[in-house]
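Bit of a strange request maybe. I'm writing a small parser for structure token strings and I need a real example to test against, not something I typed by hand. Could someone generate the tokens for this chain?
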Amino acid sequence: MTRNRISISAIGLCLLAMTVSSTALAEAKKNNECFESRAGMTTVEQKEIKPGLVNVKCSATTGGVLWWGDPFEGTIPMGDMQVEADYSHEEAVVKPREPQIDRNKLLTICSMACHDGKYVPVPENKDPRPLKMHTDIIPDSMQLKHGKGGIWCMDCHHPTNRTKLTDNFGKEVSFNQPQKLCGKCHGQVYRSWRNGLHGKRIGMWNKGGKKRWWLCTECHNPHDVEQGNRSSGFAQLHPEPAPNLPKGMTNADHERMAHGPGH
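Reply from user aminoacidic:
Good idea to test on real output. This should exercise your parser:
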């Protein structure tokens, strides 16, 4: 492992803000898997990449990744973006979303079985209507928990190609680049994400080094962004226990002195 690589997570908000059911956790343990940000999304299988070093370490409590031995495993280049940001000068990589979504052949089923424009006609308008086949995704489609009722499915999903998302001009957007969709409405958050103030990155510290970026839908569930009475998309969880102190160190007072009171 190189000196410049960050193998320990910065413990961003993503990991602390997820809920995972006991059933999902048990299933993940059975398959030797854990999730990187949100349960059920961007799942990674634990395996040994070299003697004594695994690619990820999973939390026995939440099923989430605690640290990465190889943060770039399975990543691809982010791709060309029209708006300039620091990834235009450094190597930015992401985990592709489409393989994760299609683990159960979801995209294939959507495009071939139902939404091929024949079996289920392309909608004539965006007026909300009950969805009997998607109650597992949207419990009440007449009260979509996104946009306070001001948007509908076809504002995000392409009307004729359900394997793609859509921009404001009706052009297709890949599920691998959900930031292009979310940025339509969440411009301020999108700018903060581009500048590294929102979301999560891991990788190299050195300038010009490779960095992995987390995409919007790896942390946020766009179909349920008003979790419980908090009207917030993230359920609050207690953080993981603090790591053990190095051998011979009895406390972490040096951290408080270095960073000042209240750190």
